[in-house]
Write a structure and sequence with these properties.
By secondary structure, the chain is an all-beta fold. 0% of the residues lie in helices and 45% in strands.
């Protein structure tokens, strides 16, 4: 006698035939080749899948079923993030350096130092990585090196750290500065604007996750109530699609930084650190926990928990999950899926307007950052004056600059404590007519 049963109720209806006495196939099975902590998974447009683990970079060419180590830059390198570009380059971040390889990891060249581990590639093929002091590192396909782009300062009392970055298929790039600040770039990471969405205006650390097309997700990534929001209109409005309360007293689950995937048609997977994987097939209206086959750990008070670090979709539509015991793969496809090809969107990095940002930090001692944007080439002057109108310093003195975002690090050495102003002027390089002029107040404290 045989029975037809559903083995994956959250995927396209999948039936299996089981005879009495046989065990049902688990939802997850372990991939071969990795037996230790795996915190990042990346499916490249080529179909190769990459996974940093055990201080090495592993690659799978069979849809995540087996893994083989490829060359790492140095024996001391601990890979974190991976990304690839249309020119065939593979980029690796180790939390200290960004490395580049043109032979699929056979040899590596250092590109940039002192970066945070998160790295992504935009729809235009630009590499972006999180950096310190509210900035991101950015390298276009045409540029030879990384440049630094600043995200406009947030409230001075909040931690000014770029916490995550995600590039969507429609050319938008999202970044977060914790706690609770989400920013958007419409021009490939050249300039950033804060998203002011009332739906997610709560004081927690946020992480952004890439969806499909214009789809983007934002969620909590610290212990406490776990919440995930979804937007399809470039962050102007958000819908809550997932909320999970802590089930066990000592497990402290939270949404991992690389653990949200979507097929754009309603199927969403969320990985909770210490609580496993949750699946939805209806845009988050209903959820089912699916840890069948994953390794469990015994915590305090005999509470079992699941170390879920990251999620990824394979070229054949299977789910991959990184755990503290290697990589696990869903037995059945979660969705029909193929990796996004590099269909490049034309980049226009020139700002639409001239602007002068408020300095950060403010008050400051001894240094602060002043950011301005030029819509066209201009001759720029930036001077600092006191409350009497007396000139104190000239950080920029009639300097010709190209269009784009520019950043000045101003050091107030020798200044007395008090209120000052910085005056910015941009004039046409040929006619000397003033194109833009603005002044802002800042405070120097010894």
């Amino acid at each position: 006698m045989t029975y037809s049963i559903v083995v994956g109720s959250l995927v396209t209806l999948i039936l299996a035939t089981v005879t009495p006495g046989q065990s049902q196939t688990p939802f997850w099975t372990k991939s071969s080749g990795i037996d230790t902590w795996s915190s990042f998974l990346y499916t490249a447009p080529s179909g190769n899948i990459y996974a940093p683990a055990d201080g090495k970079l592993f690659m799978s060419i069979d849809d995540g079923q087996s893994w083989t180590p490829i060359g790492e830059p140095t024996p001391e390198t601990i890979p974190h993030g991976v990304a690839s570009t249309p020119d065939g380059a593979l980029f690796l971040s180790d939390g200290g350096l960004i490395w580049r390889s043109f032979d699929n990891g056979g040899s590596w060249t250092p590109m940039q130092g002192y970066t945070n581990p998160w790295i992504t590639v935009s729809a235009r093929g630009t590499v972006l990585a999180t950096f310190d002091r509210g900035s991101v590192l950015r390298k276009t396909l045409k540029s030879k090196r990384f440049s630094r782009r600043y995200i406009p300062p947030v409230s001075a009392h909040k931690t000014y750290m770029v916490y995550s970055i995600a590039a969507t298929d429609d050319g938008m790039i999202y970044g977060t500065i914790g706690p609770g600040e989400i920013f958007l770039s419409r021009n490939d990471g050249a300039m950033w604007r804060r998203i002011r969405a009332q739906e997610i205006n709560i004081d927690v650390f946020w992480t952004v996750f890439k969806g499909v097309g214009s789809e983007v997700f934002a969620g909590t990534s610290q212990p406490g109530p776990n919440v995930l929001y979804r937007s399809t209109d470039q962050g102007q409005s958000w819908t809550k699609v997932f909320e999970h309360e802590q089930e066990h007293r000592h497990t402290f689950p939270y949404i991992s930084q690389q653990a949200v995937v979507s097929d754009g048609n309603g199927r969403i997977a969320v990985g909770l650190r210490n609580d496993g994987v949750f699946l939805s097939t209806d845009f988050g209206l209903h959820w089912t926990k699916q840890n069948d086959g994953l390794p469990s750990r015994l915590g305090y008070s005999a509470d079992s928990f699941y170390v879920t670090e990251c999620l990824q979709l394979t070229p054949d539509g299977h789910l991959l999950v990184g755990t503290d015991d290697g990589v696990y793969r869903s037995t059945m496809p979660f969705t029909a899926h193929s990796p996004r090809s590099h269909a490049l969107i034309e980049s226009n990095e020139r700002p639409d307007i001239f602007s002068l940002e408020q300095n950060y930090p403010n008050p400051f001692n001894p240094s602060t950052t002043i950011t301005f944007e030029l819509a066209d080439e201009a001759v720029v002057s930036l001077r600092v004056i006191n409350t009497l109108g007396e000139e104190v310093a000239i950080p920029i003195d009639h300097q010709a600059l190209e269009p784009g975002q520019h950043v000045v690090d101003f050091i107030g050495t020798g200044m007395a404590s008090g209120v000052y102003f910085y005056e910015f002027t941009a004039v046409h390089p040929l006619t000397s007519l003033i194109r833009f002029k603005d002044m802002k107040k800042f405070v120097f404290l010894k």
